[in-house]
# Entry
Amino acid sequence: MRSADKTKENLERLFNERLKPHLESVEKDRIWIKKRLIFTSVIAFFLIFLIGIIPNEIMRWIIIVISLISLLWLVGTGIVKYYLYRHQFKEKVVNEIVKFINPQYHYDAYQFINVFDFNKAKLFAKGERCVGDDLVSGRIQNVPFHYSEIKVGDNPQNNGNSKQSYFFRGLFFYADFNKDLKEETYVFPDIAEKFLGKMGQKLQAKNKKGDLVKLENAAFEKEFVVYSTSQQEARYVLTPTMMEAILKIYQKHHLKLHFSFVGSRINCAIKFNKNLFEPRVMSSGVSFRDVEYMYELFGLIETIISEMNLNTRIWTKD
# Structure
């Protein structure tokens, strides 16, 4: 049996023997939360409707106050129930998946990579505020790594906005390779050339991250654009093996991968527009496909390090 088949078989065994019984045991909680959410929405709609049709102002305010108290109670108890349900899901399901990948990894459901470490990657604009969860750390082939789901944005108080907005949302990962690079190299999805052709090539040439680097791997060049402050070091970092590894990961998962090689770290940011490791509410949470998807996301970081073989060549001290 191929290793991939064996891994899936073991994951299915983990799901059937340990995860599924737990998910079934909390399914009644999920259904309760779902009903509470629907009932609260109906009450809120009913309140809006009554405000518009009741002519008597005193009666209107009495109904408004009673309805608001009811809504606050419904929402408050619903939130408490949801976070208890969520906590059990994180500890009993997500944690088990991480340990299945490697028992030595450390998982913390409520910690995340801080904005300082995100900014060190220099992949996007400089963030001022960062929120997230599901921090995983450990070592792969003696390479220390950290990754988590995060959202990064500006501080609303500094830009005059009353609502928080985020310019990055997804998985962020970094690994220390114990050697300081003198220059900086960046790998981005090649969106401009793919959609704009020759005009996109001209746009590519202009980037604050450094000079455009043209590499010999045509398949890699088709999917990614590379910038660096040193043409020589970019080729030193992006060896044929490294480019094949990044391309292989992209072709398998088709995700928006952003890499930077800065200082003593390789950084990788993967954009998503949804929460990744959260329990379902509106539909059944007893799903092997959901577990398999989380396993693939967590395993992706391990794949990046393993495929790039970061413990060799430039990734070790002289």
Q: What stands out?
A: Residues 3-101 form one domain. The radius of gyration is 24 Å.
